[in-house]
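Let us practice reading a record.
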Amino acid sequence: MGVSKLKLIDITSNLINLDPVLVRFIELKDIHPVLANEIIDKVHGMTSFVSENPCQALLNELYELEKKYGFDIKATENKNVIDNFTEMREYMVSTRNELEEEFKKIEEKTLKARELRDAKEQVKYLQTLDVSLDALFNMKYTFIRFGRIPNDSLEKVKYFSTKPFVFNSFSVESSYTWCMYITTEDYKVDVDNIFSSLFFERTYIPSFVHGTPKDALLLLEDEIKSLETSIDDYTKEINDISSTSINKLGVIKGELLYLNRLYESKKYVVGMGDRFNINLFTEEENVSGIIASFKDLVDVEVNVNEGDSDKRIVPPSKIKGDFFSRPFKMFTEMYGVPGYNDIDPTLFVAITYTLLFGIMFGDLGQGLVLVILSLLLIFFKNSNLGKIGLRLGISSVIFGAIFGSFFGNEELLGELYQKIGIFKEGVFPFQAMHSSDNTMITLLFAVGIGIVLILSSMIFNICTLIKKKKYVEMLCSHNGISGFIFYACVIIGAAPMVLNMMLPSIFHITFNFFNIVVLIFGILVPILLIFLKEPLERIVLHEKPFFEGGVVGFIISGVFEMVEVLLGYLSNTMSFLRVGGFVLSHAGMMLVVMTLNSMMNGVVGNILVLVIGNLFVMGLEGLVVCIQGLRLEFYEMFSRYYEGDGVAFSALNE
């Protein structure tokens, strides 16, 4: 991957051409326009065309109309528009009022029908009574109430048995019981309060219902059917209103969306007296098409310059993609966007992260499971994490095959390799990486990987500084040439001593790297250049004073900074011990699983222990390894060569 080279296009014309230019401008593809404020804030005398956008309020009203009434308004594209916002608003208000009126009628009829159905439910239980309902409700000394009460309140009714009322239940449902109670005039208020406290819901029998309960049922059924017919009629009227207005609303939505884009595009326009200017970035292959878009407009100038030619504007970074590293772009952007003149580190991140994960999670069987899960994520969700997981799973499979680990079994692959003649007995390399007997070899192997990655990061930084023409920092930085030479010389000189001391049974190195030439040009000169980096930069840039804060203050602060740099080299190198630690921890956790498996009796128990144990190890270790891998990337490598202070390329029509 890399940062694409861009062209800076400058579109200039008279104010009379602003609208025609904007009409063409908003249709351009793969362009990154520059906000007017980025230029106006740095140059006096220029103006902005940003103003209140009348389209957004209307669009919000339209979206509310869609949400409230369940419309699916398809925007009808119409670029020959007249921005008559008053007419648009009046039509939307008129449509909303009509719909609200019909919905209000439906709501009223629906509520009435629900009440009648409740009344019908009550009357249904009175059919055995051969008495007129008028007689029941017109009794002079007693009062009757119909309704329903929650089932959990039925038992509580017994607590009020001494009160002057008669209670009778008709039917018990899942949550409620239909019932009635009768009381006298004197106790009506008290009894009503009692049943209200028991959450009694009263059902009112409509006044038009007369006669016996059987007669009342017929009247209620007729009235309910009449209400349902009215509801259907109102629903039909709503559908008619919707069908006639949906097309017009679609046209309005299309016009508003188009006009909204035109108004929003004015934030990219810079005013210069009676002329205006629009700046945008694009790739070189798009330049000819952009020029052609404005060719037929009179007095419109389109100038093409290099992407970094205008020092007032920070060029955006458009990342080129490749198949392997593209998913890892998210890791790079978590730290920041590469600058326009920086080298994009995504490919380096993809390679190193995949390598580190495979070493720390090296198990052929578990790697295959990760590959399968990742493929499922890609197939069903097209997940970027699935694409990363696929690459990490393949790396785990490769290193699992090298280490000879298959679902924690450290012998199965070794025996297979011996049978097919790949390795002779006892000669299988790297299989001992998971063995506690070779802990020191594993840890030194991890440190060796860290040293290579740290040196690679320094080389990456040197190349970036050369591209950015920061030659003093390239030479004198502790992550530049001086730091590279110093660190490499110390490692080469110290390696024989460390290997002889840590692995005396394997290494007997007598080579002494530290001679007078190495000490002077490999140790002292690089340290001196790192120490003098700041004053050397001031000399090159012709800035004074060379020693800000005085010579003594510079020396004291410089000494402390050098101690910090030297400790940083040591801590960064030792940080990679965690790679070896996770190699060993994988073997340790799987040893626990295998031990538990040997304690189980029966095939089913063995299978359950192996499956659950492997899933647990995969989940726990996989999560920790992912996090630790990112930590090594960000703290031990990114901090050496990557600033991440760039601006992401943001296409206008995306």
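A brief commentary: Residues 213-265 form the longest helix (53 residues).
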